Amino acid sequence: MIRAGRAPSTCSGVVVTGGAHDGPADPRPTARRRLGTLLAAVLVLAGLMASKPALVPGDAPVTAMRIRVDTAGFRPSAFRVRAGKPVVLTLANEDNPFRSGGGGYHRFVIESLGVRKVLEPLSTQTFQLVLMEPGRYEFSCDVGHGGMPGAAMRGVLMAE
Q1: Start and end of every EfeO-type cupredoxin-like domain (predicted)?
Q2: What angle do CA 104, 113, 118 make, to 5 degrees?
Q3: Which residue in 91, 51, 96, 99 sits closest to 74, CA to CA?
Q4: Residue 136 bridge partners (DSSP)
Q5: What burial class does residue 106 get, using C-beta atoms within 10 Å of its C-beta: 0-12 exposed, 13-18 middle, 19+ buried?
């Protein structure tokens, strides 16, 4: 058996250089490799946090929508409504009071409209909303995320 760092041995004129232990003598990752892995992970997380919910082309505007809320985010996180027409939103918080990072509470916030709905754990809340102007209205939850919306806790209403 040949260990890395040893000189090859000869046996009957055959040089033995391979074996199960080819490679660096120290199998631990190098500092450069660790740094590269860390940077790749940071870039992936930054991309996920920056991503915005996408509307599927052709989705018809709705007059009522049930939005499920839990630590995974809002589902659905994007939908269309008619500008100037009422839409009934039902928010269903599926988190229990024992969840860490907010105790199961969530908020439905549309900052641009001043909408702020507090959702207690395992509760449902229904309200009517009229978006008078066409446009993109982003909503989020800032509970348990240091006052900022978490990566998954974002969504968009598109008024047409």
Answers
A1: 43-150
A2: 20
A3: 91
A4: 158
A5: buried
Report the residue count for the chain.
160
pTM over 0.85, yes/no: no
Question: What pLDDT, in 10s, does the model give residues 21-45?
Answer: 555 555 566 777 776 666 665 554 5
Q: How far apart, in whole angstroms, are the C-alpha atoms of residue 130 and residue 117? A: 15
CB 2 within 8 A of CB 8: yes
pLDDT tens per residue, range 137-147: 999 998 876 55
Tokens of 24: 């660096």
CATH topology of domain 64-159: Immunoglobulin-like (2.60.40)
The DSSP call for residue 60 is: P
